[in-house]
Amino acid sequence: MRETMYDLTVIIPTFKEESNIGTVIHEVDEVFARNAINGEILIVDDSSPDRTAAIVRGLQQEKPNLSLIVRNEDPGLSQSVVEGFRSAQSEIFLVMDADLSHPPALIPKMLGEIRAGNDLVIGSRYMEGGKIGDWPLKRKIISKGATFLGRLLFPEVHDPVSGFFAVRKSVVVNAELRPSGYKILLEVLGKGCWEKEKELPMEFVDRVTGSSKLKVRTIIEYLGQVANIVCYSWSHHENKVWHEWLKLVKFGCVGASGIFVNMGMLFVLSEFFSIYYLFSSAIAIELSIITNFLLNDFWTFGNEKSRRLPRRVHRFISYNIVSIGGMAINMGALVFFTEIVGINYLVSNLIGIIIAFSWNFVANRKTTWCL
């Protein structure tokens, strides 16, 4: 293991970046100088066939804090970043692209947040204040889709596939990282040892020179990476993803209890009080919403959210608003299957409950219990 010499190592993976690499090195080094950061710049190059490595070697003559690794096997951005983790001469790493899409000016703030006690600091395109430059529609759809899948695993992280992040060495030093593709942050989130994370809004600027390396293979590799992280969580119960699965199971158990409340009240109101089944269903749904909220707030998410009454009331209001969509789905299915298909109203109601469950979990996880 190399001796720790720097406060921060900025790791920049490269492949055919001769048009950008000199500029990004100068900009990062200027940020170091302006903010009195004792920082290392570590370029990890995937045997670029152009002059990328030669340019870096030339700059090493004037920048003693500039290091270069040229890899000859197992090419890939994520693999390069992990190689950088192994070779960095500091206890804090910061990963950024070489194409000038990530703002070097954010480096001091990210370093400050790590020093303030966070294990991970992420430059986020999708939180309030963050934005993306002019992207074609196809690339926007792919990015949103990748982010959606990532947030299913880490719902409280707005941009789990960002390429711009800082991390403590302790998070990744013993992690069973399986680097592949371009989304190394997702791997760190899924297998690293971390507790506290912080996101900072950033503007992602599309590359000015060079070409994007996004290919169909990249999408396939990403889907495989998501599946691998899910499988990994099943045998590593300290993992963040495993705890998210537990929340889903608990949410499902609470939902199952709500079925009994819902179905029971619908039956009692319709059969014993002769209330028209649509009105009975509305009352039964609201009663199940109340019991479900209380169980979820105390049990499913009880250890991570404030128990103070104003916050609980706030969450209850949010839960009811989200549940309006679930109620519409439930009622729509009830009417459709009862009036059009001709199924018994109790069976129709059960179908509506199942369809509405997926909506309720995803929407509430991203709103009610993110408050």
Topology:
Layout: E1 8-14, H1 21-34, E2 39-45, H2 52-60, E3 66-70, H3 77-87, E4 92-95, H4 107-115, E5 120-124, E6 131-132, H5 137-153, E7 165-168, H6 169-172, H7 184-191, E8 197-201, E9 203-204, H8 216-235, H9 240-272, H10 277-300, H11 309-340, H12 345-366
Helix pairs in contact: 5-8, 7-8, 9-10, 9-12, 10-11, 11-12
| Mean pLDDT metric | 88
Biggest pleated sheet:
7 strands, mixed
* CATH evolutionary superfamily of the largest domain: Spore Coat Polysaccharide Biosynthesis Protein SpsA, Chain A
Secondary-structure element pattern, one letter each: EHEHEHEHEEHEHHEEHHHHH
**CATH-defined fold name of the largest domain:** Spore Coat Polysaccharide Biosynthesis Protein SpsA, Chain A
Low-confidence stretches: none
Mind telling me which CATH architecture of the largest domain this is? Alpha-Beta Complex
Level-1 CATH class name of the largest domain: Alpha Beta
Helix and strand composition category: alpha/beta
Strand order of the largest sheet: 3-2-1-4-7-5-8
Helicity range of the residues? Answer: 40-55%
Please indicate the count of domains: 2
Q: What is the first-to-last residue Cα distance?
A: 42 Å
Tally of strands:
9
Shape: elongated
Strand content bin: 5-15%
